[in-house]
Structures are given as structure tokens and as C-alpha cells.
Amino acid sequence: MACLExxxxxxxxxxxxxxxGHLNIRQHISAENTYPRICWIQHILGFTHYWAxxxxxxxxxxxKTASKKVRKTVQALWSWCRDNRxxxxxxxxxxxxxxxxxxxxxxxxxxxMRAMQAVRHHAERAWRYWLNRRSSKKALNWERFQxxxxxxxxxxxxxxxxxxxxxx
Length: 168
Hints:
By secondary structure, the chain is an alpha+beta fold. It is 43% helix and 18% strand. It contains 5 helices and 4 strands; from the N terminus they run αββββαααα. A 4-stranded antiparallel sheet has the order 1-2-3-4. Helix 2 runs parallel beside helix 4. The protein is elongated, with a radius of gyration of 21 Å. The two termini are 34 Å apart.
């Protein structure tokens, strides 16, 4: 209990925003029920676990990539593209795809598609930005980059882990 007491912040339904911490708890009054329901947010192993409603209206625990991990991944991809912009294009593409596939395989859980798509989008932006600065004579405009993307596509994110087994 002492562990929980250090990181718990309680707010009412219209209270202030929750503080950042390992475990945040707020009281939630649902519309159809008048009893309070505890909703919590917890950061474990790079994931943020939180209560939310499913598509069928039931309360489930959802997971998404922690925003700190997304930010660090995007910064790491940006600096890698900057440091290796003079590398051969096929080798650069192979390594970048390997980095993205590894990220998608670790963070590929249910309800996390938006965060994975954001990482892919920022990887494309970083790759184009630093490829465009390889030479002033051959500028990589948007049309040439689109043609490059059709020849050398980056991997698309997909869900590879199901955390909860379906109970029948």
C-alpha cells in the first residue's frame, strides 16, 4: 500500500488534470451507473495501460506506446537518418526497415495502431528530410520521394501480439 500512496492522485470527474507519474487514479462516474468506477493509468515496459470502453461498450484495459517512448524513437530515427544520410540508398533503406520492423514487433499490440503509424510517418519525414540534404544539385522533391517510396516502401505497422486471450 505504501507504494500506491506515493503515486496516486485522485481527482473528481471535472477536477484538474492528472499529474504524471507511475500510477494515476481518478474517480469516474459513468452515465448509466451512479457508483464511482476507478480508472487508472500505469506505465510499464514502455506501454501506457488505461481503462477505456471497447467498441461494444464494455470496460477493458487498453495499451498504447508511452508518449516518452514514441518521442525517443522519433528522435533516434531522426539522428540516425542525419548521421547516415551519405550511406548507399539500398543499405540505408534496409537498416531503416529493420529498425521500424523491430519497433512494430515490440509495440504491435491491440489499440496501439495510432502510435505505430505516427512513428512510421515521422520516419518517412526524417528520411525524406535528410535525403534531400545530400546534395544541392539533385533536390529530392515530393514527386521523386513518392516514386522512391513505391520502389522502396517502409514497413507498415500491424498488430502482432494479442495480450488477452478470448475466453469462451
